[in-house]
Amino acid sequence: MNPNDHGSRRVVSRRGFLLGSYLGLGGLALLDALQVDSASAAAASTAPLAMKPPHLPAKAKRCIFLFMEGGVSQMDLFDYKPALEKYAGQQSPRPEGVHGEIATFSAAPNRVIPSPFRFARHGHSGRWMCEYLPAMSACVDEMAFVHGIQVDNNNHGPAVYHVLTGSQFPGSASVGAWMTYGLGTENQDLPGFIVLGDRRGAPIGGASVWGNGFLPAAYQGTLFRNGSAPIVDLRPRPSVTEQRQREELDLLNWLNQKHLADRSHTSELEARIAAYELAFRMQTKAPELVDLSRESEVTRKLYGLDDPISEPFGRQCLLARRMVERGVRIALVLHGAGGDRWDDHGDIKGRIPTHCREVDRPIAGLLKDLKSRGLIEETLVVWASEMGRTPFDNNLVTDKPGRDHNQYGLVVWMAGGGVRSGATFGETDDFGLRNASAPIPIRDIHATVLRLMGLDQDRLSFLHAGRFKRLTDIGGRVISEVLA
Question: Which domains does the chain have, with CATH numbers?
């Protein structure tokens, strides 16, 4: 025992023991061990997004998730309710099976508001569609609709979390994080999960709605801004050569790996190491990805890039197609922010046509483009909002009525890989307020989306805080009625 230890026992590290071993043979062993450790650490940095086989056979390999923030009014777009004409201006009958704010809204003085828009049937499926969705109406036979979906909260923030993370509370893993955790990505030069944000601002909840939550940090989404420069600092400084940048990155990586080797619970650091490497590779791949000038005028018009109102969302949808075409696992495309959300408590007659004009051509263009390129069979497209709206308005004096929040009336549609085209599941009551029979919880939608991507909701789990977490929480029913 060393007298300088003052009677304490000296703790010898594994590396110290090997270095001090007989005739330095331990040092040779240490060199080999360091190589193995370094290789393992490097693998840990890059392996999270490596391709993984699906749990189940599936056609869809990639997903484009279109999210309309604000609570889209289902009875003004997809859920035609002629009974509203009969009760126009009258007190809404009190519904059964609803609780909380909806029960309060229904009991309080209100007036039924018929949709101010014309509806017509479209396609072989005879789908009722609003007059302000002419381009999407031509695609209804590609879609499968689910009506009367319920979320657990009647307020925007918790409802957004619930639809995009499976929980109404912050801190859970997002749908995109779960997909990349389960499947990895096909393109190691681009992020596996990309978020295309609205130019007008961030969604309620900010980055947490595409975050990794309790999953390793490598699975969080990467935000691309809307505009000509979606990625900040994509190109290196003019004075820095590629070789110089590579040397700087190698040094930084060596320091990070050295720091990593002596620590546990290093998800964030591992993700940062992988992110530096990915950013370096993206400098050669991403400029071409975001350069829409290479697209033909026909394609640009297809997405509505010739109209200043539809151009911003059209750009997002076109980028989403380019991303899944290059192997990105999931692209989350956001529409609506601030005062331009689908949160139409007033003036639905003036506001909804504007929303529709912003998204109609881009969404229809996306579906048609995917189909023409042979990508639709391997690409799942999901359209959702965080809730539906009420058939009545509690404001009895305004001459520009709107609709209130409705956690029982959400409509979601899907198209593409593995979806039964033209299908419908669920039916709301005569007022479009709630499901006419049993409610459809949002976890059923999550279970169905995972199944379409080849993921088993029970096998896709992660041990956190002593419990195996899942996107579907207690489990959802796969809606086989919308599966091909």
Answer: 59-237+283-482 (3.40.720)
